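Agenda item 2: D-xylitol-5-phosphate complex prediction
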Amino acid sequence: KRKSKLSASILSADFGKLAEEVKAVERAGTDWIHVDVMDGHFVPNITIGPDVVKAIRGVTALPLDVHLMIEKPERYIEAFIRAGAHYLGVHAEVSPHLHRTVQRIRELGARPVVTLNPSTPLCAVEDVLGDIDMVLLMTVNPGFGGQKFIPSMLPKIRRCREMIDESRLPVLLEVDGGVNRGTIDDLVDAGVDVFVAGSAVFAGNDYARNVNGLVERMR
Ligand code: DX5
Ligand code: ZN
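Presented output:
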């Protein structure tokens, strides 16, 4: 049985029928639901808040993998955890007290994730590796779905895999952005554990076919 996970990003879902979309990708066989929270400051786009996360929590039993793309994320972690976030990710670029923030996420009962933009070096997460459950490497610049995978992120992903393996810590490696049938093989090869996919999952109307096209390549 495969160990790696597919986390379907609802950013590419039809927000007018979000509950149905979430249930449809659950039926299609995704492992997790990835929820993109954007504030119009850290990233140019604006999406959803804790109330919508709570609504999603009510319609699926799958783990919610919540990706905060907001400034001062520490102000909102409690609200998102109360709303049902299982994994909660903050960006290192907007977390000057990252150690404190990830401790707080764990204290409040969620699994801490640290996210890095394409240009942010791995050393930004190195010293909190023992305090988190997952590193999320962005493989596009965050803000929008449907962007092209940045190929120069592959060596970074491999180095992150080595860093985690050498630490012997139980930390997962997740990637987000431009994951599709054309890029997934290289990512599997690089040792990714969790694959976020938005546009590749919500394309057309056969979600099961989309999900299978990805998970059949995963290990
Ligand atoms: C981008 C978001 C992603 C986005 C990925 O800022 O963090 O989760 O939904 O979309 P695709 O898979 O279409 O690149
Ligand atoms: Zn995301």
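Discussion summary: The beta strands are 5-9, 32-38, 64-69, 87-91, 111-116, 134-138, 172-176, 194-197.
Owner for follow-up: CH.
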